[in-house]
Design goal:
It is a single chain. The protein has 97 residues and is mostly helical. The protein is built from three helices and no strands. It has two domains: 44 residues; 42 residues, no CATH class. The radius of gyration is 26 Å and the shape is elongated. The termini are far apart. InterPro entries: GapR-like, GapR-like_DNA-bd. Keywords: Coiled coil. GO terms for molecular function: DNA binding.
């Protein structure tokens, strides 16, 4: 029976730690929300700020890859002009059999 009570106390300790951490997480989330509200009150675009925070978490090469693919998709959908390396058009022999 000793093992059962030890396991029960260990489980209780884990649950209580998780509960404390969840409360801390909620408090931090509230603080972050307050900072965004303050920024919005000063005229900043919170949606863009959230994107910048997300981008800053990425490695530079990951961010560059993502931006390149995004530009490619936007170009394919006619949302932006073609990059300079597309300006010359297809190679002369391309598409001919």
């Amino acid at each position: 029976m000793g093992q059962t009570s030890v396991a029960r106390e260990q489980l209780r300790a884990y649950i209580e730690r998780i509960e404390r951490l969840e409360e801390e997480k909620k408090s931090i989330s509230d603080d972050i929300r307050d900072v965004y509200a303050e920024a919005k009150g000063n005229g900043y675009d919170v949606k863009v700020m959230r994107q910048v925070v997300k981008l800053r978490k990425q490695e530079a090469h990951e961010r560059q890859e993502q931006e390149a693919v995004l530009d490619l998709y936007k170009h394919a959908l006619g949302m932006i002009p073609a990059p300079d390396y597309y300006e010359d058009g297809p190679d002369e022999g391309e598409g001919q059999a």
